[in-house]
């Protein structure tokens, strides 16, 4: 499908090709629209920060095996860490400027590229990489908002999965691990709030004992795909530790400084991994709105070339991602090639189609061809290419 490749010099890092990156961006834009609807603002934070920041957060003692660090160099004695998480950066954005209880909930999102030193034996295509992009967000709230905001995140995560045909979703509740920061009293509070949200959601769940993050308990979402395989994707984590460690506060109704609670939230989890799961789930037959190349206009004879160019231009005018195949090859050869490349729609044009302004449509995986007027065919494809959330918004 010419989506991506890996090579030895960059273990666990994806070289996205143009088509793969188009798919990646379609997914990113989908999440961007969904989280804007839910009141998130999008930010961008530094790729590297001083190692000392990660000592303060507690990452260095508990998580340093997973981190990439720079070497000291002359003129700058500091060691920098390439971020394995976006959380500390988002807390810095929260801290910049005085915050009031009226600013909460404050929802900060980032398509954050993170690096983690996964052992090379664990690397597995797009499904386990070292460099990946989280559809990450941090929600700064008061203690009394934990249950309500967790439930909102939970509902949006489930709605997003159903847009990709994942309706069989299990939720795992992971409580305190042995290796952790923070007092037990704080953990008690965080776990109780998460449990309340979980029960209010009405979904079946299981306890994942001791599997929480080192800074707080979490909910994890496990999808079952078309052929019954399970994939863990999104998470929501309550964090009563990190904002305090990094000195974040807001001013409450009584003018007191209060440490906010932070929810960590990812819906796809890793964009790279979710892309891999989708390719498996759809067995390469991506729905039209996600297909990097939605249609190919293929000519039967050379004298249909001008008409083919016209069809391509008209399709692009409607926002469709279309290419032409005007090579001097047999049409069966072209059909086979584009089917192998999983192109969802093939628009075949010859002398007759050109004369009568028709196209012969052949859909991936189907034997039959349907001859239709050009405008009608393109309008139907353009309609099918509308993302599910945009379609819902139009209908509302
Ligand atoms: Zn986080």
Question: What can you see in these coordinates?
Answer:
- The chain is 35% helix and 26% strand.
- It has an eight-stranded mixed sheet. It has a five-stranded mixed sheet with strand order 17-16-18-19-20, sandwiched between helices.
- The chain has 396 residues and is α+β, with helices and mostly antiparallel strands.
- It has two domains: 4-281, Bira Bifunctional Protein, Domain 2 (BirA Bifunctional Protein, domain 2, 2-Layer Sandwich); 295-395, Rossmann fold (3-Layer(aba) Sandwich).
- The model has no long low-confidence stretch (mean pLDDT 94).
- The protein contains 13 helices and 20 strands.
- The protein is elongated and about 75 Å long.
- The relative contact order is 0.12.
- Helix 5 (146-163) packs across helix 6 (184-201).
- The structure holds zinc ion (ZN).
- Zinc ion is lined by residues 85-87, 138, 264.
Q: Compute the gyration radius: what is it?
A: 25 Å
The percent range for strand residues is 25-35%
Q: How many distinct folded domains?
A: 2
Strand order within the widest beta sheet: 3-7-8-15-12-11-9-10
How many individual β-strands? 20
Helix/sheet category? alpha+beta
Ions, cofactors and other bound molecules: zinc ion
Largest β-sheet summary: 8 strands, mixed
The CATH superfamily name of the largest domain is: Bira Bifunctional Protein, Domain 2
Task: State the CATH class of the largest domain.
Answer: Alpha Beta
Low-confidence stretches: none
Shape: elongated
